Amino acid sequence: MKGIDLSVKIGNVVLKNPVMPASGTFGIESCEVCEVEKLGAIVPKSVTLHPRDGNPPPRVIETVGGMLNSVGIQNKGLQHFLDVIIPFYKERYDVPLMASISAYSVDEFKQMVQMLHDDGRTDLIELNVSCPNLKAGGKAFGMSSEDTYHIVKSVRDITDKPLIPKLTPNVTDITVIALAAEEAGADAVSLTNTYIGMAIDVHSRKPKLGNIIGGLSGPAIKPISVRMVWQVAQKVSIPVIGIGGIQSWE
Which letter does DSSP use for residue 31 in this model? Predict the structure, then answer.
């Protein structure tokens, strides 16, 4: 009996199925508990151009139906990704590899995409536009349709690899941002990232997170993310990758 064809196409890359991990949740250690070969794509944690220590602790706290985190994209930088992370996956698994990149300026995004394109071993590139734009007072790129358009447009001519902006849900109308990404040349959009949240320790009367605010993830956010995915799917003609609160195949 012939199996069902679950393959999907994003840009010029065909995935055998649409199942992949969210970038913030998947590291090398995940391979010990996950059948990686069954994935449609591998999406390691977002990387920045230069190494980052991340935010001050505490970084993760439990909430009702989820968790708040303010890890701050701690990572060893793009060169380490090229030297260590890519070889780890490419030598072990015949699965498309998506690099998720986070940057603090358009120039940094361009430099990182150029490095990934020249290296050639990644198959898709996720543009984490949910990260702060330091030249705009820390406001996330993805909160502005103009900034999102500018980033995608600026890197589109650098590479023919599929570009997938990862959108923030912390906006008034996410469809406007998605349409801007599509118009600029994105091959797909992924949504959503975490929702801005905060928790207070009622005994000390202080914030529980060292960074004060963080990103809410977990089962609690799934209905909101599903709603946003549905809204975006009504507006754009490119693929929409749904993220947020997923616990099982159901």
Answer: G
Q: Which pairing describes strands 195-198 and 8-10: parallel, antiparallel, or unpaired?
A: unpaired
Q: From CA 164, how far away is CA 169, in angstroms rounded? A: 15
pLDDT, tens digit, for every residue of 146-200?
999 999 999 999 999 999 999 999 999 999 999 999 999 999 999 999 999 999 9
Q: Which of 142, 138, 119, 148 is nearest to 130 (CA)?
A: 142
Residue in this structure with the two tokens 């109308």, named with its chain if needed = 173
Out of 98, 124, 125, 131, which one is annotated catalytic? Answer: 131
pLDDT in tens, 9-26: 999 999 999 999 988 888
Q: How far is the CA of 23 from the CAs of 133, 152, 180, 191, 202, in angstroms?
A: 20, 19, 22, 12, 33
Q: Name 8's Cβ contacts closer than 8 Å, sequence gap at least 6.
A: 14, 15, 17, 18, 40, 239
Identify whether 31 is a catalytic site residue: no
- For 140, the 3-state DSSP assignment is strand
- Name the strand (E) or helix (H) holding 230: helix 222-235
pLDDT digits (tens, 9 = 90+) for 66-106: 999 999 899 999 999 999 999 999 999 999 999 999 999 99
Cα-based angle 224, 128, 173 (whole degrees, multiple of 5):
40
Pairing of strands 189-191, 240-242: parallel
- CA 115 – CA 38 distance, rounded (Å): 28
pLDDT band at 250; cut points 50, 70, 90: confident
> By the 8 A CB rule, do 52 and 73 touch?
yes
